Each structure stands twice: as C-alpha cells, then as structure tokens.
Fold these 4 entries.
Entry 1:
Amino acid sequence: MESAHMATLPLLTSAPSTSWQAHGLCRSVDAGVFFPPAQFEHKPEREAREKRAKAICNECPVRGECLEWALSTKEPHGVWGGYAEGERKQILQGKVKISA
C-alpha cells in the first residue's frame, strides 16, 4: 500500500490584525444581517438582507480594513467590507474591481 503524502501548509509569519473590528458598525446590529440563516434563504430575501448589510458597511469607518481582512483570509461567508462572498470571490479572481 502506498503511503499518502500530505501537502505542508504555509506558515503564517503573523496573524492578520483584527483591532479594527472594535470600530465596526456591524457590532451594533444583529449579526444575522451579515450572514445567511441556517435554513434556506430565497433569493429576494438574501438580496434584501445583503442590501441592508451593505448599507451599514457603506457608513462604516473601517470598511476598507474589513474588506482587506476578508480578502486576505478568504472569508467564505457573509458580507464583509460591503461585499458578499460571491463578490469577494470575483475580486480575488480579478473579475471585479473594488469600488470606492
């Protein structure tokens, strides 16, 4: 039997900073606005929830730091820095540019 080889994980030289999180406007609202519910969410409901989350992000003083963190950690869920997971994926793939 052949032995399986596991790829080695790159070592992080430093953890991404999260100090900006203390200043996020998202801390003062229900986190459910930023993340999908555990049960199925219909498209109109998802779009309305994400619209509410993005409106909060647009006023947030740490929006840029939030988006940078979500992109650098490849955060797979929720709205971060004004972008939903699918939009962040497109940014990372170079298909969409970040708008101010």
Note: The chain is about 35% helix and 0% strand.
Entry 2:
Amino acid sequence: MSPRNFGLLLTLYAALAGVLRGLGLNVPVFKVPFLGGETAGWILSVLFFLVGLWLLISGSRDWQLSPLTLKQIRRFRSIKQGYWSFLILLALTGVAMLDNLLVGRRALAVKYEGQLYLPFIQDGIIPGSKFGLGYEAETDYRELRKLFQKENKGNWVVLPLIPFAPSQDSPDVIEVLEKRGDGKYYRQGIDEPFSGRAYTSFKEKPTQKRREYTLRYGVFQGEMRGWDAKGEQNERGKYQDGKRTTYTDYQNGAGEALETQASPDLQAQIFPPAAPSWHNGHFLGTSSSGGDILATLFGGWQQALLASVLYVTFVFVAGVVVGGVSGYFGGLTDLLGQRILEIWAALPFLFVVMIVSSLIEPRLLILVGIIAFFGWKGVASYIRTETLREKARDYVAAAKLTGASTGRILFKHVLPNTISVLVTLAPFEVTGIITSLAALDFLGFGLPPDEPSWGRLLQEGTENFNYPWIVASAFAAMVIVLVLVTFVGEAIREAFDPKKFTTYR
C-alpha cells in the first residue's frame, strides 16, 4: 500500500468514525477511538485525520525507502522472535477492534415478530417492552434469548461470542443442579457434592421461588421453606440426612398441592467470584464483583492500546521538540533545557496522581496525560544527545554553507537521522504505560471501578488467593502482552543498531 493510499484509508476511517459517532451509531472498528471516552476519541479521530490528510497530500505514490531502511527491515524480519511477536500483536489489535461484535451484553441481532433489530450498533437502549417484556429498562438479551428458545415461536436472538460487557455487567449466575447416581446433588462439571441453598421455581413464573432447601454435601439438611405464586409463605419443614423430619402447612394442604406447578429442576445461585465454567459462559470465571473476567481482560487490552497510542504521541512530540531545540541550538538554550529537565525529574509523580484522584474522577485520558507529563524527559534526553551528535556532522555544515534554513536542516536532515532512536524507544514506552496504568489501578489511584482494568483484577486476586483464576488470568494477560512487546522492542533495537547500520552518508 502506497503512502497516499494509506493516507486516504486513514482519512476515511477518521471521518467515518466521527460521522458515525455523531449519528449515535456504535459500529465496531469505527468506535475504537472512543473507547477511552468522548474527549480521547475526538482527539484520536482528529489526529488520525490530520496524519492521513498529510500523507494524502504530501505522500509519494510509492514508499521510497532508502537501501539502509530496507536493510533494517530485512534484518527485523530475520529476527523470528520479534517478527512473530509483532504479527501476534497486530492480530490481537485486530481482535480488539472488533469490540462489541465479540464482547458485549447487547445482542447482535434480534428477530421479533418478523422485524429485525440490531441493538449492538445503537447508542440508545431498546426497552424490554419492545419485545413483549414487562419493563421499560434496557432489554436483558441473555434472558430474552432463553425466553424465545422456550416459546419456540420463530423469534431468535444472536449474542456475541462473550455475552458480557467489560464493565458494569454483573449478572446473577444461576445453575441447575444435577442429581447423580449416588443420590446427591452436584454442580455441573464439579465432582464435589453441592453445599448451600437451592430452590425450585414455578413453571409459569421462573423468577418466583416455590421451595428453598438447604443442602450439605449434596443432600437436604436443615430448613425448607415454601411460597405460593403470590410470594406468601405457605409451608415450612426440616430435613435430616436427606429425609424430611418435620413439616408444617400453613394453608391446610395447599402447599403440597402446589408442587404440581413447580419445576422439577433444583437451581442454585452461585455468588461471585465464580470459578471458570463453560456451562455458564464464564470461560475464565468471574471477579469479586461478578464481572466476567474474559470480558474484563478484553476491555483492559483495548484500554492498553488506546493508552499506548495517546502516550507515545504525547511523549514523542514533547521529547522531540524540547530535545531537538535544546540539542541543536545549544548554549543558553541547552542550559535552560537541562535545568528544566532536572526540575521536572524532581516532581513527585505519585503524589500528583493521588491529589488528582482525590479531586476528580481520573478517566483514561487524564491518567495518560499525567503519566506523559512526567514521562517525556527520557525521550527528550535521547533526542538531545542524537541532535548534538548529528549537528556536528559534515552534512549539516554543508547544508548551512548552501544556505539551508534552520527549519530545513532540522526537519529534513537532523530529525530523520534521529528517527531510529524513536522507533527503538517506542516498544519500551508502550510497556511503560501499560505497567504504569496497571500499577495505579492496583494501588487504587487509577481508573474508576466501572472501567475494565488489569491492575484491579490483580489487586482483587492478590487480596484472596482462594480464587486463583482471578490473579492467574490478569497475570497471564499482562505477561503475554509485555513479553510480546519486549520481543518486538529487542528486535527493533538490534535491527536499528547503529554499530551495524549507520544512518550517516
């Protein structure tokens, strides 16, 4: 793809993302810039649009890469570990862009009485009354699918592969217990007999409890209570080792008669955190708040991608401007620049974050801005060093002798020869922002609780190791991503090593 075509593609993407957002449509891929909030979304859209427009206007028909750059790319591709890590990260980025096409509580499609609905692209809600449910709140599509399957009237619901939202989605986990050959009740897929409370419900009103039992090691043990269809208690009893020992009917036999209206299934509510279960659709289990861990990891990966793009843009722009000006002009400018860097380095980063977190709700853009506010110093130092070295080269002196302006020397000669430093630094800046965000969330100074976060999962998991699937999932996700990015960074560093490939001609 040529630079112009890439610029055209980027411009169209940014324009469509803005237009669709303005129309209130959450189309997957195009809603990705807005996952970090409205402000961050519009900043990213404008940034993509400007970069695309610049490539479209000033870009060439073909990539005019120098022999040196081609040699560096070939060297990068020859380092299999880094090259394959790069491809895997690209694939994971593509998966993240699919967004609510893969992960979300809204249905992809609903067919009801011959009419087709696409709830996942709508910004507003569709009330339950639209599908014949008795409420005006947003439709619970998971329950709607069960209802349609039970009614079997030709209506259907298509849900995403992971039908849970990354945040603010903690549905009750209800399991049907199975009675095995030994006469005891078990949770599906679990070998240990069930202990806890379980209940039956009315066939016509599945949400209304009929009887509630206490089970110990898979048998009835303790109190039993029963209710009629109006929710009034009508019976009570006690069980010992699975046998009923006492029984009281408050409605003169009406309680036992209601058993014909009850479902034979014995159900149990599983309180969070719940272990991984294919039967419930929680493939990696749930967190302490009841959220699906796989959906949370997906949302955390999207946040990490957005934060990386914003952070690298901020620190590179600030670092190149300050380091380039300081290194090229030298003298008093360089002296002032160095003193500013020293003062900046002495500012207490963590205290500033704590103060900001106590004053306002720290959204993603604010956190990235604060971290970037303290993170550009390293890039500025590297660029200053490179600029000092490049300006002493003969080609810069030759450019001055031919009358080239300062801007031309900086942007056409010096800056392109420092690009290798930025390319080498980029993967390590990405690992830095991912670990910084996770650390702030772990300490409780990061994103608000309604946002998906890897750091918060780590914090939940380390608070109680009785639920190892929480900490193991978050730890594995972070390790995999950081190792892949580090492999890419090491490969780039080796491919752009100036000891092997000099940029000077």
Note: DSSP finds 16 helices and twelve strands in the chain.
Entry 3:
Amino acid sequence: MASPAPPWPVRVLLLLLPPLVALAVWMDGQRYDPGLLDFQKGGNPGSELAKMFPDTLGLLKKMGTIREYTEANLYEYINGHADFFIGAGFRRLTVVEYGPPGARQPTLVADVYDMGKPMQAFGVFTDQKGSQAEAVNVGDMAFVSDRTLGFIKDIYYVRLAAFAADTPLLEAARLLAGKIQSRAGATSGFTFAFPDLGTTGETRFIKENYRGMAFLNNVVERIFTGEKGEVRTAFLVNGTPATTQDLEKSMLAFLQGEGIKYQTSATQGQAKIYRVTDPYEGDWFFAVGQDRLLGVFGPCQPEHLQRMGEAAQPPDVTRKSPSNVQDLP
C-alpha cells in the first residue's frame, strides 16, 4: 500500500529548502576578512614578525606574498622535518622572497622561525648547522655553508637560501638581522655562562636525556681542550631557582640510585660544587648555582673548579660571597 502524501505546505517547504541553504552559504562567503588575505593586518604575533621584513635587502627587493605557517600546516613547507621543529618549540614560520629589481623569479628566500625561546632557537640552529659550515658574524650566532646562511637572533632561527652564486648572502643576512633586533626589542649577546676551561671547541644542544640522565633536558654542551691536549666536556642547564633545586635533587637521587659516590667538594659564593667518583666516566664535577647547573667531565684543577663556581653564580652573588675553593683536592 502506497504511503500517504505529505500535506502541501510541507511539500512546498521541502522544495524551497535546497535553494535557501545554497543562498545562505553564498551570503556567508561574501563576508571579507582582510586578516585572512593580508598577513600584515592580522594583528597576531606572526603578523608582527612579517612586518619586520624590509622591502629591500641591499639591492634585492621583496617579491611575492609573505607566507606564514603554523604547527597545523608546517609540513606543507618542510615535509619530513616539521615534527623536529614542532618538538623543539616551534611557534610560527614566516617566509619572504627577494630578487633583483625587475626579476621575475626570486634569488633569495628568507625563512624566519619563531621558536618561542632563545634556547630553542639555538637548538634548531645547531641541528641545521652541518659539518662543513663556517662561522660568520651575524646576529647572535651564525654559519654559512655553500649558498645557505643560518643565524639566530633572540627567539628566532633564520635561514637564508640563495639560488644564484652572486647573491649577496652575507650582506642580506646582516641587514635582516638588524631589522629583527630593532623590531623585536631583543637584547643582543646570546651567551652561555661557561667558564674558561681551555680552548673552546664545538658547542652542541641536547634537548633530552643528556648522557642517559632523563631529568637533564635542554642542555648546552661545550668542548674545551687544555694546554696538554686534555679534553673537558662542560654542560650547562639554565633554569629558575626552583627548577635548579629540583635538578640538584634529581641528580643526587640518580647518583644514589646508580650507586655512584659523590661528595660536596667546595663552595664558590653560594654555588655548591660536587665531585662525583664515577666508575664509568671517571671523576667529574658539577656546580649548582642559583639558576643554573654547570658540570664538567674531564680532568679539573682547582683553578678550573673555581671558575666553575664563579660561572654557576650570578656575578653580584659571586662578588659578595666568600669562597673556600682553595681547599679543593
């Protein structure tokens, strides 16, 4: 038996519903949001970064549209390496192209990664540096390799890639670095409080699980070579007074758990210096200051430990506090 037909008002409503829905969708699409089309008017942190790019870098002029990427679409630009940047603290990427006046294609691409923190910018910088890179004076730290130049400035990791051999890469990088510094209000001098333990060698960033110690993360490691060729490996973790105290507790708990002997060797200012008798690594030392933990693997003389204690403490604390570092073995 056939179903009864619906009343005529219902039939009319069903006939009108599709065109009404289509009309509503069309009207919604006509609303213009300039923030979606012009990154420089968006009012978000990424837009502020986009404004830092000058119209010219020396003889090169800005070309095309400024592109921005977030965690959601970073893979569209660096597919295969996006997870690394996101895991290192990535917040936003801004990409700008430059080329000679009248050129139809860019000769230089500038990628500026907002990494959130200077230490996180340093982390990706060291990963991207490459073994053949040559240090140059740009920003807080920089390297150049073939037609690629990378530098860090405050919380930013910047990578410039040239498509032509005669592209003034270094000049462009210095101009851009100066612009980023002035607009961001960042202080210059991205330094680490390592003491003088010999000739400075490579500096590395280890994000997690330093030397198998799960509580030691975001570690900066620097290699030093002494006058007799002895190697000292120093490591540094910056933090707050609270996190530094937690690190000290975790370190002592780790040593106790592993059955490794240690003793408090000396104090320099308010920094405590521990001597660790490690059956695997040999004797090594770490100093705990107000807001940093500084350690050294390798042979250390009393003067080295004194420098460790001084480096582990803010300068004003070190000057005011007494030292008994002369009692070190």
Note: The chain has a mean pLDDT of 80.
Entry 4:
Amino acid sequence: MPKLIKNRAIVEDDFVLVTTIEEGADAPEGNVILPVQYYLDNRDALASRDNVAVWLESDQPAELLNDIHQEVAFIAVNFPKFADGRGYSYARLIRERMNYTGELRAIGDVLLDQLHFMARCGFDSFAVREDTDIEEALTGFEAFRYSYQAANDNPSPLFRKRLG
C-alpha cells in the first residue's frame, strides 16, 4: 500500500486516486479520490458515501468546491508540475474563505522542497512523488525556522513578534 505524509507523519494511503472515468461508468467502489467534476455530475449517487474524496486540477476554479467541501472525505489539489503554484493559492482559499478544516492533500509533482511552503498554505497531507524518499521528505518541513510572512499556519508575521 502506498504511503503519504499526513500531519507530519508517514501513514498508509488507503485511498486510490482515480484520474479518469469513462463517460457513463460508475465510480469505483472502495476509498477513492475522484475528479471534482465527476463528483459534481454524480453528486446524488455519491454524496451518501463516506469514502469518496475529490481532487481539483490546477486549472479548475476552487469555487467548484463551495457546495461540496463538507460532504467529501477530503480534498486533494493536483500540482501537475512543481513550477505550477496555483495549488498554493487554492489551499489558502479553501482554508480561509471556505473555512475548510478537513484534510487537504497535495498530489502530483510534490517535492521535498515544497512541503514547508505547502504546509504554510494549509496542506496537511502530502502524496510525494514516487521517486522521492518519503523519510527524507519529512525534513522538508524543517527547512526554515522562521517565516517572515503571515500564513495559514501562523497568522502573525515575524515583525509583530519583534514589536512585542
């Protein structure tokens, strides 16, 4: 079973990421992470399942999650490549504007160097790339001791601490 980092610990990932579903086909049984548009199109049939999560592609608007974020197991945001930073913005929108308190997972091209910044934006779960040493990836959270800017993990900027 694949592993992921959740709340800064390595755990088994018992959900399966579903990237495509043929038109008219039913969602797979079991714990699945479905494309958000598929979930919206089949919401009546899926809303009663407690083992369905959704994933958002980086070119989809986060507002697609407005009405469903409280009824899914968790939300995943895809990073198609490491240079695509839209997922960071989505994490802040989901946490701060939607007041989402559930699991927020980063999937796709997730690298050690990004974990600290992703956590600051609100991600608490990370499916790192298969070629990444997951034990070593844990050190990514400790890359920086202090952060100057306010973020989801610390709403007080560093300069306020200096002012007392």
Note: The longest strand covers residues 52-56.
